[in-house]
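Known limitations

Structure tokens in this collection are predictions and should be treated as such. Users comparing against experimental data should check residue numbering before alignment. To illustrate the layout, the record for GTPase HflX is reproduced below. The input appears on top and the generated tokens appear beneath it.
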Amino acid sequence: MFDRYEGGEEAILVHVDFQQNEEQEEDLAEFEALVISAGVTPLQIITASRKAPSAKYFIGEGKALEIAEAVKQTGASVILFNHSLTSGQERSLEKLCECRVVDRIGLILDIFAQRARTHEGKLQVELAQLRHLSTRLVRGWTHLERQKGGIGLRGPGETQLETDRRLLRDRIALILSRLDKVAKQRDQGRRARVRAQIPQLSLVGYTNAGKSSLFNQLTAASVYAADQLFATLDPTLRRLNIEQVGEIVLADTVGFIRHLPHDLVAAFKATLQETREATLLLHIVDAADERSNENIEAVEHVLSQIEADTLPTLVVMNKIDLLEDFAPRIDRDETGVPIRVWVSAAKALGLELLWQAITECLLKTNVYITLKLPPELIGQWRSYFYTKRVILSEMLDDEGYMTLSLTLTQSQWGSLNKREPRLLACVQEKFTKNGNINEPIE
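Generated tokens:
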């Protein structure tokens, strides 16, 4: 069903500039990186400028003839467009050039298909491929009869095109049912972490910003990291312990890119759920990239698509080792809360500052509570608070009462009140980092 090219093939690259600005070179460089990541060797790059796409070829007829001639001279086996093409434009170009044509979306889908390692990742990629392919099933089997009425004109009853569409629908329905089971399994694990009040941090960012390298530095893991686009596809989670915070979960996720195919966003809904449910997002940015601001906007656009744009975010400016005379530092807002950290994952620079900023961000909404426990409650709750790593100090007086200084999230304190209302009567002091709290905390 998939007539896809394989790694090691040689291609003609086509890039069209519609805006007449300086972004063409950067866009083209990113496109070349995508092609190389797919394992394809670029033989020739053909550029063009137009005010609007052509309905038939996307490019002008003269430029299309130039591409056809380049295919004959170079012997290229595929033509790759740095744009999204309609099925009609693909067929017209393939007929003219006598060569397969793949657009930007098809190229990204191919890279994802190569990177998928887990069962869930393979299902998600296949779902995106099938949805993309379903728009290309138009007159693909012209040698077979179509349904007709009248004596001598009756066809086989179902055309091959209709058969393909039915098979696609059945396969998509099967994959969706399997992904639904995987999503339920993820939800179970996620609910367990929520019940245990374990904060989750998700690494997000533009592809090749250094997320996996930073993940490996923070967790001492061995996640595959390479200087290529979409090196990471399947999410990886690790549990860590942070002083003053306790146990957290750190998740490495797939990188984003401009014009990320909608089918991919929909297919990776279960994976991206890890980002949507995060306590804190670590937005990794390649500080050495000249288009870092545009990359940030692209990531924020995808975050808004998956409804994660309102989550607390700490920006991590990575790869400062590629900048001249730049030292690690923390940038803060007017209230002193960290908003940006400058580090280098490759050189392990500024990681202690990153941990400091993460700790402050996780603790800024925490509640600091002093409890004076009577003797009958000490054994149960002192042990419980120690397992949660929330005790800052303790003191036992002569009458057998124990004073505990704790740092808890507001949700932790709220759930404790429901489980043990007597704790509320033991409160001596409640405050946040921003000042005292006089009213009860919900």
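For this record: The chain has a mean pLDDT of 77. The longest strand covers residues 41-49. Please report discrepancies through the issue tracker.
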